[in-house]
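Teaching note: in complex prediction, the entire set of molecules is handled at once rather than each chain in isolation. The prompt given to students was simply: 'Predict the structure of this complex.' The entities are:
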Amino acid sequence: MKHAWMLAVALAAALAAGCGTKKGFEVPGQAFGCPIGDQKIASMEDLVKAKVLMEGSRTTVLPTEMRCSRAGDLLRIDANLNNDSRSVKRISYKFRWIDREGMRAWEEEAWKPLLLYDNSNLMVNTVAPTNKAADFRLILRSQE
Amino acid sequence: MNRCHKFALLAALAALAAGCAQPVTRYGDSKGVETVTNEFGSTDLQTIAESMARSMQQAPVIVSGNLPIVTVQEVRNRTSEYIDTRAITDSIRSELQKGGKVRFAVDQTAMKQQTEEIKRQQGEYYAREQAVEKGQMVGAQYRMEGNITSIVKQVKDTKDVYYKFNLQLWNVRNGLLEWSDEKEIRKTTTRG
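The expected output is the structure of the full assembly:
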C-alpha cells in the first residue's frame, strides 16, 4: 500500500511539473509554435528578441506576444504590438522570410504603415507567401 | 543707397539664387511608405496586393493543393479618382503565381493576343507538327473579381480618404463564392 501511495504522489508531481512549464508540449526547434532552430528560447521575451529587428528610426512599440501556427504548409504568424506610451505612435512594419538554408525565401516586402493609439495593443497577422519560408523576422521602424 | 533699396537688392539676389538652384534627382525606396499626397499611392497598392494574396492563399480551394486555375476579371473602380486597378490585380496575380499554389488562365484582356498567336502559328510559315492546335486551351475553374470604393470627406484644413478594396473568388462551374476578403485604408491630410 505504501508503494502505491508513493507511486501516486510521484505521478501527481510529474504531472504537475509537466503542466507547469511554459513549453511543456513544444515540438523541438519551436517556441510558442515559432521556428527557433537551435536557439535557446526560454520565454516570450527571448522569442521577441530573436524575431524582432529595428531598422531606421527606432520605435518604442514592441510585440508583447508572438505565436506561430501552420495554415496548410504555410507559416502563420500573430504578433501583438503594444504601445505603452501616452501618445499615439505611427510605425511601419514588414516581415522578412527566411528559408531552411538561412537565405531569403521571398523578396523584401513593402513597409506597411500602422497607427497605434496610446496605451493600446494591435494584433498584426500574416501568412508566409511561400512554403519555402521556414523562419521569419518582424521588422519595425518609427514613422514619426 | 537707402534701406528700401538694400532690401530690394537682397530680395532680387535671393530670387536669383533660388531660380538658379539645380533640381536634384535621387533614387528612392520603392517599398517605402509614400505620403506625398493622400490620393491612392504605391503603399496602398502594395499593401492591398500583399494582404489579398496572403489571404487568398488560405482559402480552402487553394489550400487543398490541387493547383486551381483562376482567371482575373475586372476590379471596378468606384472611387472618385483614377486608379489603375489592373496594376493591383497584376500584383496579386504575381504574388500568387510565385507562391506556386495557383495557376492562371488567360484572361479577357489577354485573349485577343492569345488567339492571334494561335492563328499565326497555324499559318503557312510554321511547321505543322510544332504549331499549337485550336481547342487546346484550358478554362478557368475560378474567376477573381472585385471593387474598390472610397469615401472622401473634406473640411477647410482636413481631407480624409477611406478606401475599401474587396476581392472575391467565384466558382465558375456552380457560381458559388469560394472566398472573399477586404482591406481598408484610411489617410488623413491636415494643413498647417
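Point out the following to students. Confidence is low (pLDDT under 50) at residues 16-23 of chain A. Chain A touches chain B through 19 residues (CB under 8 Å).
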